[in-house]
Amino acid sequence: MEQTLVIFKPSSVQRGLVGEVLARFERKGLVIAGMKMMQLDEAILREHYAHLTDRPFFPILVESMTATPVIVMCLRGVQAISVVRSLTGATNGRQAAPGTIRGDFSMSNQENIVHASASAEDAEVELRRFFKPGEIFDYDLVGMRFINEPSELEL
Ligand code: UDP
Ligand code: MG
């Protein structure tokens, strides 16, 4: 099963959307494998958003992501990386499809509620960036049999 990183950005913490957004991931059938609050700083954001450090909006991105603590989460499930990305929606909330988290809760390209890992390679590196060994837990939900048909667990 895959594991992916979600960050509840300051826009979700400040707007009181953490519970509602987390409920969507839970109802989908994803397992919360790790979860903690932390204050990000420029150094970790330079790593996390290395593909964006040269862009003119990078200082704004740092300011936005350090405005308040964030909640980092590891979600686990069959094909969890692509499932979480599609629940999250397109980067710009104004263009994200209705029904997605950004489409339903964001009007912004920057203040777009959550981060979600984009690929298996990113998920592995990002989870290591934000979680120490022992902070991600391996356990099953008792209702697992009714989240996935057992043969799907091999996917
Ligand atoms: N971002 C921004 N302006 C842009 C593009 C991106 O502020 O024009 C911010 C936004 O918060 C986005 C983050 O940079 O979520 C990472 O950008 P990426 O292209 O990786 O989008 P994502 O993977 O979050 O959809
Ligand atoms: Mg990205």
Q: If you had to describe this structure to a student in words, what would you say it looks like?
A:
The chain contains 7 helices and 4 strands; from the N terminus they run βααβααβααβα. The protein has helices at residues 10-14, 18-28, 42-48, 58-65, 80-88, 101-105, 120-130; strands at residues 2-8, 31-38, 70-77, 114-116. It starts with a strand and ends in a 25-residue tail after the last helix. The protein binds uridine-5'-diphosphate and magnesium ion. Uridine-5'-diphosphate binds at residues 49, 52, 57, 61, 91, 109-110, 112, 115, 118.
Characteristic key phrases:
7 helices, 4-stranded antiparallel β-sheet, 155 residues, binds uridine-5'-diphosphate, 4 strands, single chain, binds magnesium ion, alpha+beta
Report a brief summary of the structure.
The chain has 155 residues and is an alpha+beta fold. 36% of the residues lie in helices and 17% in strands. It starts with a strand and ends in a 25-residue tail after the last helix.
Strand tally, please?
Answer: 4
Query: Unreliable runs, pLDDT <50, ≥5 residues?
Result: none
Q: How many angstroms separate the termini?
A: 7 Å
Physical arrangement of strands within the biggest beta sheet? 2-3-1-4
Number of helices: 7
Largest sheet: 4 strands, antiparallel
Shape: globular
Whole-number radius of gyration? 15 Å
Give the cofactors and ligands: uridine-5'-diphosphate, magnesium ion
Helix/strand/pairing class, anyone?
alpha+beta
Q: What is the mean pLDDT?
A: 97
Strand content: 15-25%
Helix percent reads 25-40%
Give the SSE string: EHHEHHEHHEH
